[in-house]
Amino acid sequence: MLDNVFSNPRYKKVHAVDRYMAKGLDLIFLVIATLILTVLWYPLAALGAVCYALFHDAFNDGVSPGKMIVGLKVIRYPEEGTTVTWKVSALRNISFAVFTLFALVPMIGWILMFLVGIPLLIFEAYLIYSLESGYRLGDILAGTRVVSFRDYKDVQTQKFENPENSENENQ
């Protein structure tokens, strides 16, 4: 049922491996930045890591560094054409921020990371893989969808060439 509510036939489902690769690259960037900031001051590193985990999709209108390398983009859905705001990015990435926060807090945080954070990330990965739409919990909370650059450009070109067809699809 959830798949029918959020499906959009104009965009193909992004392969789960591409999404996992993009998120893995973002996590590598997060770890490198955290290690560099830890040398300066640990609280700054912790704050920077949580902020990056929350807001990395808002820096470049839905294109985090990992998504840029893999060729993916976050779009608002159904409000296509609107930008991915800081609030939207925070909503869609709250599970990763919780995981990051737990990972940065010694002992109790690590226990919570294994009890809450990792199962939450596994659930998110399961949703990406198993739902036909490819949505994860963060996409549903924030009203977003991950698409490939190529699909996004093709759909935008069709809207520009046939504006009356795109208006009929939105109704």
How would you characterize the overall build of this protein?
The chain is mainly alpha-helical and 171 residues long. Helix content is 69%, strand content 6%. It contains 10 helices and 2 strands; from the N terminus they run ααααβααααβαα. The protein has helices spanning 2-6, 16-40, 42-55, 65-70, 86-92, 94-104, 108-130, 137-142, 149-161, 163-170; strands spanning 72-76, 144-148. It has a two-stranded antiparallel sheet with strand order 1-2. α2 (16-40) runs antiparallel to α3, α6 (94-104) packs antiparallel against α7 and α9 crosses α10 (163-170). The radius of gyration is 17 Å and the shape is globular. It starts with a helix and ends with a helix.
Question: How are the SSEs ordered, and which strands pair?
Answer:
Layout: H1 2-6, H2 16-40, H3 42-55, H4 65-70, E1 72-76, H5 86-92, H6 94-104, H7 108-130, H8 137-142, E2 144-148, H9 149-161, H10 163-170
Antiparallel strand pairs: 1-2
Helix pairs in contact: 2-3, 3-6, 6-7, 9-10
List the main descriptive attributes of the protein structure presented here:
2 strands, 171 residues, two-stranded antiparallel ribbon, mainly alpha
